[in-house]
């Protein structure tokens, strides 16, 4: 299980390796949301998402002789790139199992970062089985994307930074909206806030139709999505909350929030115009919730974790075409 | 004249007001440039450019009874927004004199930030004369965009941060490429680096055809541009280096660099894909120089100040259309 001590140790290992992302704000966004909005732009993290933190945490925690044999990961793209870069910086091999329908830019970038990409069919094959088989065959260590204590510890460093930076901005009470797939980022942040900012309440955000975490939190038990793909928020589509992450989320998080694909795209256009950052749809759902679900949020200020920015130029242009004039 | 003590005092006044922007990097940009590239993204600063620093520095340095009468500024857009927000946060009036051909987004944002916008014809009228007349008539204090010691001191805080952050990244020697208009940012950074990182060499970057600073540095005396507009890098088109800034630039800077409009647009597309930040053309010229003029740069690492990101969605889409596939 991930402890606060593990998160703080991960922060120590990540020091000088990860970007300490600032908190950004804009009076224009405050006006739309009806409260202060503070955005933690993890799209500026190495490889374009928070995933580098967890990947570095896990790879750097391995015993040297184990690490030397290499690592393997399965991922729709962001975890893949995080593990590929963390492995490359450690000088070890990284095999990455990716769905064949992952965004091209993520597949290409994973390869360019030194990852050996193995594609699979999301509808017919199990990435977990493929990962386990390759790991056994080649002596690689599997780095799970979220159900892995050292990965959760790495993502939790976002929470340590939020606790400090929000206090500096005068915010010690309010909701922290977090883009959520399997729950690694949300559970890590929740553990860090529990210790360092107990009046900041973590709340997972998801796309409508893929709101397994929201429904699981409401039901008090793990609930699955009916579909596994078919939404532009590819980065955060997971079948269900993790077995390790869900108990943490259930204990520490407020209710989940869900937004539409169009709301995610509008949030991308507003982040472009008002924060000058690039978000991918899955990285924009928490901002979308802050802006377009104000009645579901408590407090004078809301903190948003914008989790990633690995988006094809074509899809980004579409968001600007459709919503760029509204900003 | 701006002194190091003034820059440090400005840093103190800006603490908690300005974003401490991180240094960003990408192995993909390193590969193109042939050396490490560390980017200081001032597009993430409040109002979308470094100009907020100088504006806050100048407004906060005024005597309270003088400040209470309000301020006036002339600007193509970024200084305008910086002064408007700094004034609004101080609860005072800000009159902003802007060219009628400034980007719409900058005019609209300046108004939305509380600025009272006065438009003028760039080809027929002098913004300096309009500013001086309005200042006298209404008792406003003129906040010059660059030839103003407290503005230079505010911009110099970027240099203080670079000195610290570059050292943390292991870089104490190399070129610092800076997008340059009138020279306020470049001269402020140069003064800060002279004291805190003397082996980091500031180098102004401009668009070809509007490289008055580059030519002035080469000639050892102030040289004017022949045209005053007609380039997409609107944020950094100034007729000539400032009377106050030029002697500082001449004493402390290495040779200037100049890039084409297409190179600035390519740098915008690469910053989108590799750093997930939004740059305007004028804010991208230093990155363009780092990527496309490697033979004019010294050292194993180069630092880039990406100065602003206030760009219309249409122009940004054009950059992605033309150069988004090359990334």
UniProtKB/TrEMBL annotation, chains A, B:
It comes from the Bacteria. InterPro entries: Ser/Thr_deHydtase_PyrdxlP-BS, TrpB-like_PALP, TrpB-like_PALP_sf. Residues 18-307 form the Tryptophan synthase beta chain-like PALP domain. The keyword Ribosomal protein does not apply. Its cofactor is Ca(2+); Mg(2+); Mn(2+); pyridoxal 5'-phosphate. Transmembrane segments: none annotated. This is L-threonine ammonia-lyase. It comes from Cribrihabitans marinus.
């Amino acid at each position: 299980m991930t402890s606060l001590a593990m998160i703080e140790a991960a922060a120590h290992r990540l020091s000088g390796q990860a970007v300490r992302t600032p908190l950004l704000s804009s009076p224009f966004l405050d006006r739309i949301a009806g409260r202060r909005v503070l955005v933690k732009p993890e799209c500026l993290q190495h490889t374009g998402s928070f995933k580098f933190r967890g990947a570095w945490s896990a790879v750097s925690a391995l015993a040297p002789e184990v690490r030397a044999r290499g690592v393997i990961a399965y991922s729709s793209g962001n975890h893949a790139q995080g593990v590929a870069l963390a492995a490359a910086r450690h000088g070890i091999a990284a095999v990455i199992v990716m769905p064949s329908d992952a965004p091209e830019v993520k597949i290409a970038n994973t390869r360019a970062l030194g990852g050996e990409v193995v594609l699979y069919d999301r509808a017919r094959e199990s990435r977990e089985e493929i990962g386990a088989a390759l790991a056994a065959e080649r002596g690689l260590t599997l780095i799970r994307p979220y159900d892995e204590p050292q990965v959760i510890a790495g993502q939790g460093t976002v929470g340590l930074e939020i606790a400090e930076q929000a206090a500096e901005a005068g915010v010690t009470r309010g909701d922290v909206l977090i883009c959520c797939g399997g729950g690694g980022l949300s559970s890590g942040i929740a553990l860090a806030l529990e210790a360092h900012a107990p009046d900041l309440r973590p709340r997972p955000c998801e796309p409508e139709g893929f709101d397994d975490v929201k429904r699981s939190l409401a039901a008090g038990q793990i609930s699955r999505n009916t579909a596994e793909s078919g939404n532009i928020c590819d980065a955060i589509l997971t079948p269900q909350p993790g077995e390790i992450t869900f108990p943490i989320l259930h204990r520490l998080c407020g209710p989940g929030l869900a937004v539409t694909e169009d709301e995610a795209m509008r949030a991308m256009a507003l982040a472009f115009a008002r924060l000058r950052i690039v978000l991918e749809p899955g990285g924009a759902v928490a901002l979308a919730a802050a802006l377009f679900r104000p009645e579901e949020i408590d407090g004078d200020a809301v903190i948003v974790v914008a989790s990633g920015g690995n988006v094809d130029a074509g899809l980004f242009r579409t968001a600007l075409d459709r919503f760029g004039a509204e900003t």
